[in-house]
Design brief:
heterodimer; A: mainly alpha; MetI-like fold; 2 domains; B: mainly alpha; 15 helices; globular
Chain lengths: 338, 298
Amino acid sequence: MSSNHKKIRADGTPKKSVAERFKGELHKAKKGKFLLLLMVPGLAYFIIFHYVPIGGLLIAFKEYSSRLGVLGSPWADHFGFGHFVRFLNTPDVWKYVWNTIALSLLNIVWLFPLSIILALFINELRSVKFKKVVQTVSYLPHFVSVAAVAGMLTLFLSSQGTSADAGSYLNEGIINQMLLKAGLIKQGISFLDKTEWFRTIYIASDVWQGIGWSAIVYIAALSGVDQELYEAATIDGASRIQKMWYISVQMIKPTIVILLVMQVGKIMSLGSDKALLLQREVTYPKSQILSTYIYNLGIGKGEFDYSAAIGLFNSGINVLLVLIANWTSKKLTDTSLW
Amino acid sequence: MIKDNSISSKILDVIIYVSLIILMIITLYPIIYIFSVSVSSTTAYESGRVVFLPVEFNLEAYKVILEAGTIPRSFINSVIYTVVYTAVSLLMTTTMAYPLSRSKDRVAFKGFFSKLVIFTMFFNAGIIPNYLVVKGLGLMDSMWALILPSAISTYNLVVMRSFFEGIPIDLEEAAFIDGANEIVIFWKVMLPLSKAALATVGLFYGVYMWNSWFNAMLYLQTADKYPLQFIIRQIIMQNQMAAELAAMGDTSMMTSQTTNSVSLKYATLFLSILPMLAVYPFIQKYFVKGVMVGSVKG
């Protein structure tokens, strides 16, 4: 029976035990010190700024007091899960979860098809020069910072309620100026203070900033399509629209599927950057998403333990979603992220 | 491509050209408009005459900005942060990516280290524990609080690693046979061959730092240290405050405040975008390359 102790690998060699493998690695380390030394700063970074914070997530299970520190603070009630219990029992929280998902989904619904259409249109251009100009211009907003985009939106959409007959547009942004002049509104509207406008503004600026950049991957995929396919289709009498649909779209389908699946995997990980800049307290019912809630509560109000618990909950779901997305992508297209 | 002269093809061309031109207008209009307001007179803005091009051209706003000092200082801060950050990040990313790209026979614990790194792509501790670590290290209100916590982007590390992996092994073997050791190979063979990748990743880092504001809000307390993008946020807040005052009916304070500042705000906004505007046509091709590497090899 002793011969069965070691597991046999596919190539017939016995699988090494952990201790043996560790010894082997140590041997390598002795031989090649330089490559290991090179990694020291990088490893220090990952440990200090990724793994120490992961350890610091312990705070989510504690009644944190800054005097006692994370380790010294007493455990939260419910066997340490008190913050999670409180979180799951707060009705507003589910609204914020939904706000997060809604913004992510709206982003996918708009940006995704629009960037594919842009790529298809650019692919149809015959003038190389015009193609280049369109591409270069469409990349521009990607290089504009989120703070500047939010600044633009704030200034363009601002209003202090000037009425149409006041004759002064000093306190009105360009959008309100135009609407007032066209007689479409009687009084300026401060759009960013209107809950019902938040999502539209958020998504429209997402599209403005991202459409050209998101199209890159499809443009590259389209440039790899065999030109003979198009020629053969032309001989068979296919129209250009038919060729766009039956050749171009079909050929980039795998790319579309992978990116779509990955996007869906990220629906809960929407960052706080832009929402924080665009949200006002009055628009919280739509503009408060999980990441801004964590920020406003944790950094704003100093509730470190509770907001870290929400963060952990969020990160956990994100990992789960990415794993599912990756599994789906593997099944559908045989491509996985790792 | 064989030319297609049918009517439907012509209609399609019209649709494509018209929509692409509309897209370009929508993209460029806000940027041009910001510049126009920044160099137009307040009276022109007040009467609603600034719609696209400058009216009653003057550089008053820029003069005020230069004299006041806050914005030039934050501009210099941004430049310093960007340069230092790019240098530090590039150094740390390269030195980490290179060993991870070599054969596992030469790098001890390579598999373990790779997993350690990749895991951080999927799991993030979140803002609170990160904040406490920075605070615990005593980095608050220091430039290093902006630089060190995001010194390596795992995505950029993967891009860099893929690039090193793509360098033909023959070059390395030839150098080995010539008696070069690992240090010489890294410094004299691999790095010179990686200029394009270093440029790409360096630009990723540079643009990221130039455009970031969130960490400045978290970690900086002294106004003298604020980067430019954070100043933009202050303007947003100021605008919001003015609106809130107006909503409360207190217009006495805010009119005097906003009267002079319309073109000032737009000038500040324009200054924050200008450097990117100036360099992005030249650096975008590196970005496109980086995006492709990342999307294939993520």
